[in-house]
Input
Amino acid sequence: MHRSIATFAFLSLTTLTSLEAQDAAIARAIPLDASTPMELRNTRALHVEFRGREALHLAPLEGHEHDVDQTMEAVLTDVDFEDGVIELDVAGARRAGYAVDNASAFKGFVGVSFRVRGDESERFYLRTENARLDDQVFRNRSTQYESDPEFPWKRLRDEEPGKYESYVDVEPGAWTHVRIEVAGSTARLYVGHAKQPCLIVDDLKHGVSRGKIALWARISSDAYFANLRVDPTCRDGDGDRSPATSSSDAPEMEPPAKLDDVRFGPLVRCSTELREYRGRPAIHLVPTPEAEGSDEAMLALLADEPFHDGTIEVDVAGAPRPGAPPDSRGFIGVAFRTGEQGEWSEVFYLRPTNARCDDQVRRNRSTQYACDPDFPWHRLRKESPGKYESYVDLEPAKWTRMKIEVDGTTARLYVDGAEQPCLVVTDLKHGDGEGRVALWAHVETDAYFGEVRVIRG
Output
């Protein structure tokens, strides 16, 4: 039977330590049960077992099971927090009975409010139902920041699109580890034990402040919380973490074989050479003298059969070339369904130097789709913001695996062995055609490629 945790303010059971002990900077686990005083706002708190774990479940008040556009919150009244780290496991999904179309607002919102003071708070949360949709605009809204009461997500999105939300892979209803690092007016959100944050906010709307911590969810969400730990001593990534599945932590790639057997057709604005790079044989694209300094791409078309549908895999390593302009990003990727002379192509590519900067707008442009010649990246971004680019963790100049799946007018980009794509395009601009596969990089990129693996059909 569920055990309701309805009123906690002055329980005589085991309580948390006093504010003075908190200021002594002692990291500790906080039990999510009747021993921890809580103020419940528009919710019931039930102690349950969920997916093999003891958990706190936020549930609507009786009679409000079908309300919309409301939030539920359990404020930990004896926790006073300014800077440090908040870690916990959350599970959120849309509750039964709510609309399931993409445009509806019922996305399994679950997260954490911090520095809570009255009706003021900062908040990170997950939109779990977004992360695995085919609509990339919604996928790029899988994580969110907002600040009560004056900066709800809609205002932030309208005023600064892409700055306060980002893509990360989340499975609705599954346990997901969340880590929030707070220092001054900056907060960083890490999801799933990643070593790099998926969302950085460097202008917390309440500035440097102090307050409570609260478990938070939309009323339309089934929300569960477990394993809460607060560490006021930890700052900016100096805590222990589990291994991540980012580019810097992926297993070493198998060394490519027989690169000298690769045959190229036309070379556009480049030549190729075989070199060793970071302990591996590699194909290096070298811009032609007349292309150097231009804002153009290099293409090395493979001399094999045309490609229609199937899978393309290649290991790439790209970074700005020495002497490149400051705004160079190390663009590197793969063109497919390319014209015989490279006159048109669909392209997925990486922008490696974007992925770990503190500017969240740039971070959300770590991967990109473009379609030459009529749909360059700047046109796509202007006409459909957020639809053709996304965040993924990358490290410049390090070997990174790209996998592209193409089926009709849809293409999906996977990075470093991820089970879920970081970028999905469902409206390839050249339609359902065919063409060559090509190694692709900007002329200002020091670009290396391992063996390309193409599976047709």
